[in-house]
Design goal:
This protein is α/β, with parallel strands linked by helices and 355 residues long. It is built from ten helices and 15 strands.
Amino acid sequence: MGNPALSTEGLLAYCRPGFEPDLAAELSHHAGALGLPVYAKTERGSAFVMLLGAPRETLAESIRLEQLIFARQKYALIDELTDLDIADRVSPVIDALGGKGRYGELSVETPDSDAARPLAGLAKSFGNALRPALRKRGLLTDKPNAKLPQLHVIFLSNRHLLLASSTENDRSPWPMGIPRLKQDSRAPSRSAMKLDEAILCLMTPAERLNLIAAGMQAADLGAAPGGWSWVLAKNQLHVSAIDNGPMSPDALATGLIEHIRADGFHWQPQRPIDWMVCDMVETPSKVAKRMAQWFANGWCRNAIFNLKLPMKKRWEETALCLDLFQSQCGRPVLIRARQLYHDREEITVFVHALK
């Protein structure tokens, strides 16, 4: 029989392995701003953080996935089961869920960590055993029902599980929060997937339809070898690729990219344009100031840019840079930021001018 290892409920959030302290600091910041007496529990490399000390409903409603930067996925934490008998893991799960609602779907998964990934096969087979047992007890609907919460069973080891739930309007639509994008062989660089993911994850379907249209004008600062320019051209935008370095022939072959040999920190458009993107390797505060200058001067209406983060105190640096950008951009803007799956030591920011 599994023993609950927690005396309380909370939140469970996935992140990139190695960024657990940053997600813990971010979650604690939001909870502290709400006056919630919570604490974060995690281990470096585990790819998840638990925020404990307040009811899961309160935390789930107060801290939404869309406002988090370092979280890939976010659930309401129901329970933790340890020291499970591998001959019967189903019964402890059934017992732990008793009286805690009914679910419209089941996902059995693992965090994206070196320790948990090998458990993916076990998770799949356990799901096949657990699903009918839940239905027999009336804890799971016979057919998927998006109106009800989704149940998540997370394997940390073959004897250690977390139980959590999520709602359709407050979770990533991709399993574990990871969109599985396929690299296009025509792309000049792997970094093209970062911009593809940013457009997919940081913009709503309506925004993608209204803000990205054939014939729009864009600038790519620090463009070489042209991965981000290529993504814009793929969407039929006309691109000024700003870089003193060489551009890939595959990018220039689109016919929509003009290579301008100039420094991305000094070049500016002759007239306002629709888009500016930037993936330059520079200190995050310098990039944030330059991006703010573009909006303050009305040079662009929309932007996607990366902030390369330091090795330590990445949440603190992120908060400082986003505050710096907002204070200097000189106009009302919509800002969304996320550490994407294809990012490394960086976050990606989407900005839309509201006026």
